[in-house]
Amino acid sequence: MKTVGTMAEAVQQGKARYLGLSNVTAEQLRRAHQTHPITAVQYEYSLWRREAEVELLPAMRELGVALVAWSPLDGGFLTGTVNSLAAVERINRLAPPSPAVGETLV
User: Fold this and answer.
1) Which residues contact 80 (CB under 8 A, 6 or more apart)?
2) How would you label 31-43 residue by residue, b for 16+ Cβ within 10 Å and e otherwise?
3) Nearest-angstrom CA–CA distance, 106 and 23
4) Dihedral of alpha carbons 38, 21, 53, 77, sign
5) Among residues 43, 40, 33, which one has the least CA distance to residue 71?
6) What are the tens digits of pLDDT across the range 37-62?
7) Using CA atoms, how far apart are residues 55 and 45, in angstroms rounded to an integer?
8) CA atoms of 28 and 47, how far apart (whole Å)
9) Cβ atoms of 68 and 40 closer than 8 Å
């Protein structure tokens, strides 16, 4: 991963302390981590968007990488700004999530 290699040089030069990535797959994270240790991954993770639980979160646990979840309140659903699942689907333009809401987190 050329970009991670370039960012690793910034760490070696003292211009940065840690490396983080955003919206990567488990495979991309593993490849990047081989180039330089990755500290955190920013990824959308909420009651409605839980696909990270399938492959990404297990890879992150294995590598000791932290999750920086964005949209944990899913654009206002839990705060009362959005008051229906249909409204969330309109905002996100997504089908209902899988796994179903209410399933135990891994």
Assistant:
1) none
2) ebbebbebeebeb
3) 20
4) positive
5) 43
6) 999 999 988 877 888 999 999 999 99
7) 13
8) 24
9) yes
Instruction: Write out the H or E segment, with its range, that includes residue 6.
Output: helix 2-12
> Helix, strand, or coil here: 18?
coil
Looking at residue 38, what is its pLDDT?
97
Rounded Cα–Cα distance for residues 57 and 39 (Å): 13
Of the listed ranges 9-18, 22-31, 41-50, 52-61, the one predicted with least confidence: 41-50
How far is the CA of 101 from the CAs of 21, 51, 68, 97, 105, in angstroms? Answer: 27, 12, 21, 7, 10
Phi-psi region of 13 (alpha: psi -120 to 50; beta: other; left: phi over 0): alpha
24 vs 88: CA distance, rounded Å: 23
Place of tokens 């249909």: 86
* Assessment of whether the complete model's pTM goes beyond 0.85: no
pLDDT for 98 equals: 44
